Amino acid sequence: MDPLMIYGANGYTGKLIAAEAVKRGLKPVLAGRNRDALDALALPLKLTRRVFELNEALEIDRQLDGVRILLNCAGPFSRTCEPLLDACLRKKIHYLDITGEIDVFAHCHRMHKQARYAGIVVAPGTGFDVVPTDCLAAMLKQRLADATHLVLAFEAGGGPSPGTARTSVESLAKGGRARIGGELREVPLAWKSREFTRQDGSHRSAMTIPWGDVYTAFVSTGIPNIETYMAVPARTIARLRWLRHLRWLLALPFVQGQLQRRAGQTPGPDRQRRETTGCEVWGEATNANGKQVAASLKTPNGYTLTVSASLGIVEQLLANSPAGGYYTPSMLMGADYVLGLPGVSLLDARMRQADGLLESAARSPN
After folding, report:
1. 150 and 33, same domain (yes or no)
2. Any idea what the CATH number is for the domain that residue 185 is in?
3. CA-CA distance, 284 to 292, in Å (whole number)?
4. What is the pLDDT of residues 95-147, one digit of tens each?
């Protein structure tokens, strides 16, 4: 039996995960659509590979014979999740992926009953999207059980991979998302902006983005109002607000195709850049009386964390058999899971009133 298959193994993140899996003594099957790229990857790692498309259910089922865990690294996941997850449900194979796409989280969550019946774990978002933010949200919920509002934010260094860049382009046409009164709502691009304070005391402007936690953190914590922010230069915020007027244009298939082809040329950070860049993650939860809990994390580069977080979850599933169903990272691994990953540290966490730890200048939505 082949315990692990990595689909999209020849992609930027898939290659990193495959190499680390071998170092950990795993022998994953490498899979995807590009035979030459898979051969070039599998040969030096002494691994087997399987080449298949995702347009025929019977073929997917055949290629998944003998697999216990599928880790999907082929984005955009809006195109790859459904056929692979359907096959995992039929074949009773645990399904993991490294998505950050809200609609993919929602689709996986809708499969909870089927996954429970099949006895398989369905756990999307096992990488930087959304392990650190989801775990931080769960920690804050533990400290403030009656929280009504949750803010999560991150600053990621090193630059995006080709897959992340393509997914970002796809999301531009969908606008922003936020959790408001328990409901997932569409909001304008760069709906809100504010500042966050780094550990070194410097300030960083940030804007709301449709990060996966507006879906997953609600499942993990039940907090009904959730906003997610990414630290970016102020000029980027202004540019995205201007793009609101062109959202209809960004949705046209021809424009999306052109933009995604250009985004796909992004090389992704090389090893030196991954080793010399990191991320900060902020979180704050507030209750109806204005009491807050706040915390921040320091993590390695997002792709480095994706490798360790995903394989940690794979190893957990190989060693244990949780009940079948849909899981967020913190539900499956515990709120403190992220703190056990290499290079992750909890920078600060304490109770406070509204003015304190995470100095912020929240601005009204435009």
Report:
1. no
2. 3.30.360.10
3. 7
4. 999 999 999 999 999 999 999 999 999 999 999 999 999 999 999 999 999 99
